Amino acid sequence: MAAPRSRRSEGLDQPLDRTRSLRPSVDSERFGRLSETAARGIGSWAFILWMTIAIVIWIALNVAIADGAPDPFPFIFLTLLLSLQASYAAPLILLAQNRQADRDRVQFAEDRARTERLLADSDYIARELAALRMAIGDVATRDYVRGELREWANDLRDHLDDQDSTRAKGGRKRNGKTPEAGSSDAQ
Length: 187
Known about the structure:
This protein is mainly alpha-helical. It has a domain at 28-138. It is built from 5 helices and no strands. Helix 1 (28-42) crosses helix 3.
């Protein structure tokens, strides 16, 4: 027959826990979820409505049964029950608030880290844009090239017009020579 399994589920590679404690071990995560559920229930309008209905019924029954009522007029037992409920509700609500504050703190840290990353990214992009603007300042733009080409075309037209006007003044060209050059050859 197989030996009964021990309550511990750790493997052989884990040392045994030799410390014994009189305190019960409590799973704080499970207890925290329980406290949040209770606080969420206690803090609802449905709870207030049902609690009001229960108190009204309790008082009506005890007033209707005047003799031999389980809780006569000062309603001591009802006061005890409400005090007991309040003594448990307050710590549960505080535990739920502490867990929410812890979650908010973690969320705030994550938001801060995300914001810092976004700021660093936007600073990087701004520096890159500034570098691109500086680099583009040295690059010829389309309008600049067009303007330069217009100036060169105008300069070329002016130069051609000047040559045409000098030819028209000098007039008679023969064999590509001016008349003065031809007369010096004759002498």
